[in-house]
Specification:
The complex is a heterotrimer of chains A (286), B (338) and C (233). Chain A is an all-alpha fold. Chain A has 11 helices and 2 strands. At the A-B interface, helix 3, helix 4, helix 9 and helix 11 of A face helix 6, helix 11 and helix 13 of B.
């Protein structure tokens, strides 16, 4: 019983973490038609910012906010320096952001070395859930993920900011003719997606080995979630992450973590083939 | 005009021929060690040509092309090490090469059938799906004790051209270099004639607008499938040549890392030309060789940034840009548009 | 209000407008007439900043607007209803209208009542998606969206396109009232001569990218030789 409960909690935790990472990705992918291969490295930068600030004696919570803002700002720079030139060159966005990811990763290696860093969680308590003991910090992570999903839905579908952002994405020339400052919304939307990656990285840092390779491990499942679920709607990746995360956790628990990844990736490839627009899809981007 | 005069009247042909003559002459000016190094990079160059074929000419970008290179490398290793079930005694390089061509080709054909037919995948999805395939392949190889698992397979023998028990091992630097160079030239001639044929025109039509090409009555999926299959066979061939020189095959050869490296070589060199992609691979590897020790991690940082700049501002690639200028027929202005 | 001098622009290397001059006074309503491909739509797109002028200048009020971005031009008080309407099909009627209001007047702006007075049907369809409206309703939505920003001048491209005659009359009357009651300055590009004569006091004829003739609507009603000459009807 305990075992099953723990498995369930771990699966839920993993699904929510993927959703947390995927949320920033899906904003730039689904809304801006940009595949951001550097998303994993923005995640990495969030984690390293937290490490650096904690080592400097800054409290965790301030580090968390600082990491989010800093990575958001880096996203702003990325948009201005690179992405702006390649909107509508879809495959090139993959390549250029891949180049950025290499550069960021190597920059981190240069500054911090290739080794792993560690941070401490602000909450170390264990909670008793139906007799099973579970770290409270993991529950905190789940709460953050849920908040991010809800907040993003609210921002993009319930506020006027979101309305304008969606209008720019739907018909940029017309939105401009109505007086919407299109470039500002490009920058802000991309920066928001980046900031979410930074937040995810900082939130995850205390329970991970913070090293230059940590980004890729989350990037691929997050991408597959979007492709499986569909990028046409923000709910797509939530569904995709649910499927991918659950399959991964269950296979890992019953078989082995490596085989879990193989099974998940193979499943995702089949799902993407059968539903090219995603399970929720109205056709993916071209 | 004689046939050869006709051939050399085209500036593209003249430039290409000159470059190959340059490679033939290289051992005259380089030492043994450099020649061995470049012989190895020639195999990467062949690999790069295989990617340029599908990416530059057919619009299929792949984040997992090393899968085919790795399959070729493993096929070659397993057969020359005498590890094929039932064929333990027959350790022929010819068998190895044949399998290194056939196994990736069959795999690519099946994968292509699955991916391109029915509701075909679009460009970005294919790129990411291939990425997933590469990661799966690397993980599986690392867990497969028969193929050496994580450690891979050691002491893969060099190419042996001998037949019927005679041994002609190609091991010394010069024969090795020229064998690999002739292989590269052969691949170049085969692929270049494909690219210049009518089939090549249809491939480029698919790359520029698949739907419109289909409206004209072409079976675009068959075009993509055949290009994908041929490319995989060439990549496998490159893998086989590589492992016969390197003597060692391990999971990273089939994985994500090498897949992205080849993308960078081809993008920097220029994906629209086979020769520019080939040179891109060799030059980046040479630069890495000299600069990586000097600069440490800063080398990759610089390469990443250079790659970004190249994608944004020089979609034809660094060498592709130069090559286009060099080979432009006299009197035509370069409009800078493709 | 709007002054265009020697405007040259086009797509790529071509020149669609070749030295176009135009002056529209405040509160005036003019119609641009001409056959297909003569540069009418190009003119509106150039004024709106959607294509760059190669030569010449465009002044709106006291400011030069050639070279400015569409959003800056919109904020200065120019609104645009493009050919084909280009409403946001996935957004609700209310959201479409809100975009018109807040694009020009800031995120807090509301849709002025005037829009619903002019086009009452929009009030009944507030929560419906723009794409589900009929053609006539979509045209009203597109004009309503432009009016929601309370512009001083409106550029209207082919409002009658694809609409049944009764709706064309309705739209024409609404625009006429907007000009007369609220002092809107209006430039309409139109193929439908009857609608053009209803909306505008003055008609301009454009041919091969230059202004070739102009006449008041009253004159044209009395003597249609200009119409025959330039529109081949």
């Amino acid at each position: 019983m305990d075992q099953a409960l723990l498995l369930l909690l771990d699966a839920t935790n993993y699904v929510l973490v993927i959703i947390l990472v995927a949320m920033g990705l899906v904003i730039v992918f689904g809304l801006m038609r940009v595949i951001n291969m550097a998303h994993g490295e923005l995640f990495l930068l969030g984690a390293y910012t937290l490490v650096l600030l904690q080592q400097a004696g800054v409290p965790y919570w301030i580090g968390l906010i600082a990491a989010t803002l800093l990575v958001g700002f880096i996203g702003l720079l990325m948009e201005e320096l690179v992405i702006r030139h390649i909107y509508h060159r879809f495959l090139d966005t993959i390549l250029a952001t891949w180049g950025i990811s290499i550069a960021i990763k190597q920059g981190v290696v240069l500054l911090f070395g290739p080794g792993a860093q560690s941070t401490t969680a602000p909450i170390t308590a264990q909670l008793q859930i139906f007799g099973a003991s579970y770290p409270a910090y993991r529950l905190f992570i789940m709460a953050v993920a849920l908040l991010v999903v809800a907040g993003t839905f609210y921002l993009f579908f319930r506020t006027r900011f979101g309305l304008a952002a969606r209008a720019v994405i739907a018909n940029r020339a017309m939105a401009g003719c109505l007086g919407v400052p299109t470039r500002t919304f490009d920058r802000l939307t991309f920066a928001y997606g980046a900031a979410l990656a930074g937040l995810a990285g900082a939130v995850m840092a205390p329970i991970m080995s913070v090293d230059p390779q940590m980004g890729l491990g989350f990037l691929i499942p997050a991408f597959l979630s979007i492709l499986v679920g569909g990028a046409g709607h923000l709910a797509g990746p939530v569904l995709g992450a649910g499927l991918i995360g659950a399959t991964d956790s269950v296979t890992a628990g019953l078989w082995s973590p490596v085989m879990a990844q193989v099974v998940v990736f193979a499943m995702a490839v089949v799902a993407i083939r059968l539903f090219p627009g995603g399970l929720m899809g109205r056709g993916g981007p071209r | 005009m004689t046939l050869s005069a006709q051939f050399f009247a085209d500036r593209r042909n003249r430039t290409d021929a000159l470059i190959w003559v340059g490679f033939l002459a290289l051992p005259l000016v380089l030492g043994e060690w450099e020649v061995t190094q470049i012989a190895q990079y020639l195999t990467y160059g062949i690999f790069a040509m295989s990617l340029a074929l599908i990416w530059g000419h057919c619009g299929l970008m792949s984040f997992g092309h090393a899968v085919f290179f790795g399959l070729g490398a493993y096929a070659m290793s397993l057969s020359t090490l005498g590890m094929l079930p039932g064929l333990e005694g027959w350790t022929s390089s010819y068998l190895g090469i044949a399998l290194a061509l056939a196994v990736p080709a069959v795999f690519a054909n099946l994968l292509g059938r699955f991916l391109f037919y029915g509701r075909g995948l679009q460009g970005a999805q294919l790129a990411i799906v291939m990425l997933a395939v590469a990661v799966i392949a690397e993980r599986l190889m690392a867990r497969w004790p028969y193929a050496g698992g994580m450690n891979g397979l050691m002491s893969v023998p060099p190419v042996n051209l001998g037949l019927f028990g005679a041994d002609i091992e190609i091991f010394d630097p010069l024969p090795l270099y020229y064998l690999t160079l002739f292989a590269a030239i052969a691949v170049y001639i085969i692929l270049e004639s494909l690219v210049r044929s009518r089939r090549g025109v249809v491939m480029r039509a698919v790359a520029s607008d698949e739907a419109r090409t289909a409206f004209l009555g072409y079976d675009t999926r068959a075009v993509k499938l055949s290009a994908f299959t041929i490319s995989a066979a060439v990549a496998g061939f490159a893998g086989a040549l590589f492992v016969a020189q390197f003597g060692f095959v391990s999971p990273p050869l089939i994985g994500f890392g090498l897949s992205t490296e080849v993308l960078i070589w081809v993008a920097l060199g220029g994906r629209h030309g086979l020769l520019t992609a080939f040179l891109g691979a060799i030059i980046v590897r040479l630069a890495e060789n000299t600069l990586a020790d000097l600069l440490g991690p800063a080398w990759l940082l610089g390469l990443g940034l250079l790659f970004v700049l190249c994608v944004i501002f020089l979609p034809r690639g660094l060498l592709g840009e130069i090559y286009t200028r060099l080979t432009l027929p006299r009197g035509t202005a370069d409009t800078g548009q493709r | 209000m709007l002054r265009i001098e020697g405007l040259v622009c086009g797509y790529g290397g071509s020149r669609v407008l070749r030295g176009f001059d135009l002056s529209v006074g405040e509160g005036e309503s003019v119609a641009l007439l001409g056959r297909n491909g003569m540069g009418k739509t190009t003119l509106l797109r150039a004024v709106m900043g959607l294509i760059k002028a190669k030569e010449g200048k465009i002044e709106f009020g006291d400011n030069r607007i050639d070279g400015a971005k569409p959003e800056v031009i919109a904020k200065a008080g120019l609104a645009y209803v493009p050919q084909g309407r280009e409403i946001f099909p996935d957004l609700s009627v209310e959201e479409n209208l809100l975009l018109g209001a807040m694009g020009k007047n800031g995120l807090g702006a509301a849709v002025p009542d005037q829009v619903f007075q002019r086009f009452p049907i929009l009030k009944d369809r507030l929560n419906q998606k723009g794409g589900t409206l009929s053609g006539g309703q979509q045209q009203q939505l597109a004009i309503g969206r432009a009016l929601a920003g309370q512009p001083t001048m409106l550029l209207l491209d082919e409002p009658s396109e694809g609409l049944q005659p009764s709706i064309v009359t309705e739209v024409g009357n609404a625009m006429r009232r907007e000009v007369e009651e609220r002092g809107l300055t209006l430039v309409t590009v139109e193929q439908n001569v009857e609608l053009a004569l209803t909306i505008a006091e003055r008609c301009l004829f454009i041919e091969n990218g230059v202004l070739v003739a102009e006449a008041s609507s009253a004159t044209l009603r009395a003597d249609d030789s200009l119409l025959h000459k330039h529109l081949a009807i």
